[in-house]
Each structure stands twice: as C-alpha cells, then as structure tokens.
Amino acid sequence: MSMNPEPGRPYSPDNFGAPPTERADARRRLERKRKLVGDIVAYVVVNAFLVGVWAVTGMGYFWPGWVLAGWGVALLLDAWNALYRRPITEADIDRELRSGP
C-alpha cells in the first residue's frame, strides 16, 4: 500500500492528506489569522506609545482616542474577515442557483 494520496503525483508533505484546494484554503486562513495577531500586537504597542506621549505632554484633550477608535474599527473588520468569514463553497453556489435571481 502506497502512502501517496495521489498516484502519479510525487509525495510531498504539502499534498499528503487533504486535497490541494482544501490545503490551500486552510493555508490562507492560517495566514490571515497570523496576520491578525501581528496587527493586534502593532495596535497595542503603537497605541500604548501614543497614550504615553499624551500622558507625558500634559494629559489634555485625549487625542489618542481618534487613533484608537479608527484603527480599532479597521482591526475589528479585519478580525471578522479572518475569524468568521468563510470561503464560498459549492453548496453555497448550488443554494444560490436554486433561489433564483
């Protein structure tokens, strides 16, 4: 019995197990999640710095709030895309075809 999932195609760790399209989709999801983690770290570090500058310069009007809010909204949209949005499946397409225009 061969360990190769696809006869005629050389074995590699990238083509063992799930079909190539499923592996590619999974890889893209993992890349989006890793990017999100990096974006969250950048958000925390940069905004902590801005709040520090605000605190050192007299703590008047809280201007870092604009950056926190704007970037936070963009980060939430990115998180939604990375964690909850799923690719369109064949079942989705079939369901749309059945529902009509």
Rg, rounded, reads 22 Å
Shape annotation: elongated
Termini distance? 49 Å
Quaternary status of these chains?
single chain
Largest sheet: none
Mean pLDDT: 85
Strands, count = 0
- How many helices does DSSP assign? 3
Instruction: Report the β-strand fraction as a percent range.
Output: under 5%
**Residue ranges: pLDDT <50 for 5 or more in a row?**
none
Helix content: 55-70%
Structural class: mainly alpha
Give the ordered list of helices and strands: HHH
Write the layout of secondary structure elements.
Elements: H1 20-56, H2 64-83, H3 90-99
Question: Overview of this structure, please?
Answer:
This protein is an all-alpha fold and about 100 residues long. It is built from 3 helices and no strands.
Main features:
101 residues, mainly alpha, 3 helices, elongated
In short:
By secondary structure, the protein is an all-alpha fold. It has 3 helices and no strands.
